[in-house]
Amino acid sequence: MSDTSTLSTLLCDLDNTLIDRDAAFEAWLHSEPSLSATDRAELLCIDAGGHGSRAQLFAALRRKLQLSVTQVRKRFEEGILAHITVKAGAIALLRAFSGSKVVITNGTAQLQRAKLQAAGLGPFIDAVIVSEDLGQRKPHPALFQAALHAVSAQAVHALMIGDHPIHDIEGARRQGIRGVLLRTRWFDPPPGVRTISSLSEVQLP
Questions:
Q1: Is 180 in contact with 161 (CB distance < 8 Å)?
Q2: Which of 60, 104, 108, 159 is the most exposed place for a label (fewest CB within 10 A)?
Q3: Structure confidence at residue 203 as a pLDDT band (50, 70, 90)
Q4: Is the pTM here over 0.90, yes or no?
């Protein structure tokens, strides 16, 4: 990416950006012996990279695993955490960037922070902004404003990296923050949006 000379703050999504949440979810599904290949394919489709309806996903998991809502949630969260892996290039990027680094993520505070620690990324991050803590979800301005405020940064000097064209990139753009979309199988890049296929493609000052 060009024009990084004034970049002082890196804002990053968590799921399918810094961590490979798709791989963790699929690995957990494979660890459940009662799920068939057809079951796993259906659940992956419902989940849609974590952007699908959580209510529909848990309802389907309840039917297939024959568990209560509480049991399904616990099994899901433990399964994800047990299979967390870091996205290629994530650690190298965070190590190389000398400015402030903030994670902005939708989800529950406890689980999202647990993912960050399970992936070993905690020491590289200066602040974590989770939607549950603010009562709003990306692309709401509150999350981006809180991220900038947490490290006393200005929007013009920040860059947002994420996998969702609306939640991450458009949300950041509305706050005057540059964005770059990390491509996944779930979204086609909108026209005019800068995209990368790996975090190793991010050019730092």
A1: yes
A2: 108
A3: confident
A4: yes
